[in-house]
Amino acid sequence: MQESRSPAHPDQVLATFPDQQPGEVAEAVAAARGAAPGWARLPALERSQALDAAADAIAGAAADLTELGIAEVGKPRGEMAGEVARGVAILRYYAQATLDPDGDTLPSADGRSLLLSRRKPHGVAGCITPWNFPVAIPLWKIAPALAYGNAVAWKPSPAATAIARELAALLAAALPPRLLALVTGDADTGQALTETADLISFTGSAAVGRSVAVAAARRGIPAQAEMGGQNPAVILPDADLDQAAPMIAQAAMGYAGQKCTATSRVIVVGDAEAAGEALAAAVRRLPIGDPADERTVVGPVISEAAMARVLGAAAEVERDGGRVILGDDPVPEEGYFVAPVLADRIKPSARIAQEEIFGPFAVILSARDDADALRIANGVRYGLAASVFTRDLDRALRFTAELEAGLVRVNGPTSGVDFYAPFGGVKDSSAGPREQGKAARDFYTVTRTITISPSSPG
Ligand code: UN1
Fold it and tell me: I need a labelling partner for 219 at 20 to 30 A (CA). Which of 81, 137, 290, 328 fits?
């Protein structure tokens, strides 16, 4: 049996659950596969209504889900409530998307036949999701999978099992029996899912994502994996620091930096000392504390291991010849709290400027000019999100063209995604097609080309 505990109050156990074994996963997938054809055959309007009913159920339970998220994954109240609202919006969006065209007609070779391309669901979508967006990420996979006629087998992160159970129960009540299966457990359970589902959508670490993609390729099933980031925010000399500093501070330290889209490197062309001071002041203004408090922006990290990872990274700063400019703000005694760390005078090649720390930790890197900033920004194995702060149109155009990232923002934060726009990274951040918006349709359906010809030459 495993337990999920509150990171702010580790004595509090939110869920106990089994690591489900491969045989149980196969049974859950088989049950979902049995329900899939009936769901796929339903008129699209009925699938739409079911997704709308699910959205209503989640909107009705928003307060409970918000409390559960605060307790189980330590997400501060404001962000957690926003995430639940985002989940409702995602379901409503895909409820409407069921009514979109399900294919195209094309000119036929003989001019008399009907040549069509039509989309069909794959069967059972396996969804493997992380703990850091325990409502939005599952829903931006499950909602399109269902909308386009698939059944779903879902394995949430063990650290978000209580909220996943609640969410799954709300969804299941609006859906035909057995269409949605929840399986609990860790990596082995996830692996069993990749061995049995008909396609896999994964969000999590780079190492696991890569093995999911390899396992899917071996079986010949579609897979998408959204993985880590080491996201840069570039401050150019003409940027408005008063706007940039609070935005970058929030993107780096909000939810204790536990987002694959969080800013981890601040690359400064020009006066790095002034930028560092503005940033440190902006980070100091972010309230740290109990995630249940509505003013809190920086809550705890998820576990003791995560705390050790952040403290270990902070200890590397001086060994690397760098300087910690912020790192000992007071934090609550109980729970997995670490003070936000900002460091400068670091070399871009240092481990702590290359690897994902996944906590309230960011480094400031100095660049000689725009070309140097681009070289540093792109000099990591990841490529998820990047931002650049400038008032110069030509420079903005150059950076948007040359930054190696799936999501590029000018004068905006690296974190926060629009659920109706395509989302995904380049390099080691992603494998497979994009998620979200209309891009999801390509992943959750297979296109078939159909020709219907007259039965006689006529
Ligand atoms: C966001 O920034 O709103 O796991 C979403 C993550 C990303 C999602 C980020 N896949 O942090």
Answer: 137
Residue 441 belongs to domain spanning: 2-227+429-452
- Give the nearest ligand 1 atom to 262 CA: 2
132 C-alpha to ligand 1 centroid (Å): 8
Q: For ligand 1, atom 2, name the residue with the nearest CA.
A: 416
**What would the two tokens of residue 356 be?**
């994902």
Output the domain CATH number for residue 59: 3.40.605.10
Which atom of ligand 1 is nearest the CA belonging to 415?
A: 2
Whole-prediction pTM: 0.98
Domain match, 18 and 149 both: yes
Residues classed as catalytic: 226, 260
DSSP 167-208: HHHHHHHTS-TTSEEE---SHHHHHHHHTTSSEEEEES-HHH
Question: Are the C-beta atoms of 8 and 299 separated by less than 8 Å?
Answer: yes
In a domain? residue 125:
yes
Determine which residue's CA is closest to atom 4 belonging to ligand 1.
Answer: 260
Tell me how far the alpha carbon of residue 133 lies from the centroid of ligand 1, in angstroms.
7
Q: Tally the domains of the chain.
A: 2
Ligand 1 centroid to Cα of residue 384, in Å, is: 10
Give the 3-state secondary structure of residue 323.
Answer: strand
Q: Clarify whether residues 279 and 163 are in a common domain.
A: no
Nearest CA to ligand 1 atom 6: 260
Q: Using CA atoms, how far apart are residues 51 and 139, in angstroms rounded to an integer?
A: 11
At 315, which amino acid appears? A
Domain co-membership, 9 together with 31: yes
Do 335 and 206 have their domain in common? Answer: no
For ligand 1, residues with CB inside 6 Å are 130, 132-133, 203, 226, 259-261, 415-417
Instruction: List per-residue pLDDT tens for the chain, 458 residues long.
Output: 999 999 999 999 999 999 999 999 999 999 999 999 999 999 999 999 999 999 999 999 999 999 999 999 999 999 999 999 999 999 999 999 999 999 999 999 999 999 999 999 999 999 999 999 999 999 999 999 999 999 999 999 999 999 999 999 999 999 999 999 999 999 999 999 999 999 999 999 999 999 999 999 999 999 999 999 999 999 999 999 999 999 999 999 999 999 999 999 999 999 999 999 999 999 999 999 999 999 999 999 999 999 999 999 999 999 999 999 999 999 999 999 999 999 999 999 999 999 999 999 999 999 999 999 999 999 999 999 999 999 999 999 999 999 999 999 999 999 999 999 999 999 999 999 999 999 999 999 999 999 999 999 87
